[in-house]
Amino acid sequence: MKLITAIIRPEQLDDVRADLESYGVQGLTVSSAHGYGRQRGHTEIYRGAEYTVDLHAKVRIEVLATDEQAYDLMDTIVASSNTGNAGDGKVWMVEVYDAVRVRTGERGVAAI
């Protein structure tokens, strides 16, 4: 099993979610995040005062997948979240050794 984690632009969430659901993903976790990558921060002026915005609003998506699905799901997330601009995000995958569905006690791939 693999855990796929994606940090993407908030406005891309609906597209990513729709594409994951059409692929057959039955569950995912979404949380708010703030951060920056290569684009760093930028300076804005509000009511005559200049200030620096150095943490950008992002969305973190986590999906458990079988080994067979993992790369296809990564490609799906990348394709549906790509705008071609700096700050589109990042997607990575880590090995999951076990998972348990709390309600039923199912383990491993059955818990996905």
Automatic annotation (TrEMBL):
Keywords, comma-separated and alphabetical: Nucleotide-binding, Phosphoprotein, Transcription, Transcription regulation
InterPro entries with a match to the protein in the record: N-reg_PII (IPR002187), N-reg_PII-like_a/b (IPR011322), N-reg_PII/ATP_PRibTrfase_C (IPR015867), N-reg_PII_CS (IPR017918), N-reg_PII_urydylation_site (IPR002332)
Keyword Transcription tagged: yes
GO biological process: regulation of nitrogen utilization
Coiled coil location: none
SMART domains: P-II
Pfam assignment, any one: P-II
GO MF annotation: an example: enzyme regulator activity
O-UMP-tyrosine: residues bearing it: Y51
Cellular component, GO annotation: cytosol
Similarity remark: Belongs to the P(II) protein family.
Subunit details: Homotrimer.
Name of the protein this chain belongs to: Nitrogen regulatory protein P-II
Source organism (scientific name): Arthrobacter alpinus
UniProt lineage: Bacteria, Bacillati, Actinomycetota, Actinomycetes, Micrococcales
